[in-house]
Amino acid sequence: MTAFASFQSTTFDPIQADLDLAVAHTRNDAFGRLLRRCEGLEPVTCAVAHPCDRDSLLGPIEAARRKLIVPVLIGPEAKIRAVAAAEKVDLAPYRIVATEHSHDSAARAVAMARAGEVEALMKGSLHTDELMAAVVPSATGLRTARRVSHVFALDVPAYPRPLLVTDAAINIFPDLEVKADIVQNAIDLAHVLGIVEPKVAMLAAVETVNPKMQSTLDAAALCKMADRGQITGGLLDGPLAFDNAISEEAAHTKHIVSPVAGRADILLAPDLEAGNMVAKQLQYLAGADSAGIVLGTRVPIVLTSRADKVRSRLASIALMALVAAANRPAQG
Questions:
Q1: d(C-alpha 204, C-alpha 218), whole Å
Q2: What domains can be seen in the chain, in order of their start residue?
Q3: Torsion angle of C-alpha atoms 89, 57, 24, 244, degrees rounded to 10
Q4: Which strands, in side-by-side order, build the sheet including 266-268?
Q5: What is the CB-side half-sphere exposure of residue 252 using CA atoms within 13 A?
């Protein structure tokens, strides 16, 4: 059974083929469990910025049908309706906020989130830079005291547990202070996913501290920061090479004694390029399903690639819905 087999819609034929494309040998069903965790939650009000192509519109519409979100479609109304007509989608149940162009769509979506009109954001068919340019300004955006970062949640057929990879989309060359926030964001997400004490591996090319390799120095410092309570909620180790982070056999062969090595839940990349390559290689060469989310902002943001199919967008929305639900004030 594929990751989404038990969640396939029987009433929305246009995207059924996409949902059936889940890799046949995926054995963990991590995204199936992710969707099941959303059952019974109140749908999240989500601003969808510029859903002006097939997948960026059908993803949130399918999520609405599954009662994950209440989408607010923000963009040029004629374009949105043209896509809906081509895909035979009824937009009557959904609110449309008309804008002139993609920059306007991003600004309007962020303004609604800042005003508390929506609980989450989702990127449509606009460029990532356009949306993030509206998100990051201190005066008008959605920044908090925490650094904004991105997390890929991956269901890798060859790995026995969900795997989070960060940061692969926002912070290009993070320094130690930024990495501390990136790690904390990922740990907090892991808690939302039910991982009580996530194991965090700080990736480098080697397993020992080398003064000539900044990634190893940062890894060692992050471990000590965790020891001193500056990073909480997870178990950190590093530097660790990729093989030692995810393979107990490799760690044993290299005589690495560590509760993290070979059993990592979170991989901290030394920089964006490394993180992006790790995540994309797992997707395209190892058959991993992926979801993505931006954290460290006032509301969670689904930041999918324009190349992502509907099922990947659906998984990302489920991830966002769980984070948004966790952010809601406790009912007293």
A1: 10
A2: 1-143+311-332 (3.40.50.10950), 145-296 (3.40.718.10)
A3: -170
A4: 95-98, 69-75, 44-49, 120-123, 301-302, 289-295, 149-155, 163-166, 266-268, 199-203, 235-240
A5: 4
Coil vs helix vs strand at 63 = helix
Q: Is the peptide bond before 239 cis (omega within 30 degrees of 0)?
A: yes
- pLDDT at position 34, please? 82
Torsion angle of C-alpha atoms 202, 206, 209, 212, degrees rounded to 10: -110
For residue 245, how far is the Cα from the chain centroid?
21
* Mean pLDDT of the 100-109 span: 95
Query: Helix crossing, 310-327 with 30-37: angle to 10°?
Result: 40
Contacts 24+ apart (CB under 8 A), 109-116: 109/47, 109/48, 109/49, 109/74, 109/134, 110/134, 110/135, 110/140, 110/141, 110/142, 111/140, 112/47, 112/72, 112/74, 113/47, 113/142, 113/298, 113/299, 114/140, 114/141, 114/142, 114/298
Across 152-180, average pLDDT: 95
The structure tokens listed for 323 are 């984070």
Angle between helices 214-227 and 176-192 (to 10 degrees): 60
- Token digits for 153? 């949640």
101-117 average pLDDT score: 95
pLDDT, one tens digit per residue, over 13-71 is 444 444 444 434 445 677 788 888 888 899 999 999 999 999 889 989 999 999 999 99
Q: Check: CB of residue 76 under 8 Å from CB of residue 51.
A: no
Please give the structure tokens belonging to residue 275: 């993180």
Type of residue found at 300: P
Q: What is the dihedral of CA 122, 123, 124, 127, to 10 degrees?
A: 170
- What does the pLDDT read at residue 27? 54
Which residues in 161-191 are b (16+ Cβ under 10 Å) and which e?
ebbbbbbbbbbeebeeebbbbbbbbbbbbbe
CB–CB of 234/223 below 8 Å?
no
Angle between helices 176-192 and 310-327 (to 10 degrees): 90
Confidence at residue 237, expressed as pLDDT on a 0 to 100 scale: 97
Instruction: Write the CB contacts of 86 (distance below 8 Å, at least 6 apart in sequence).
Output: 54
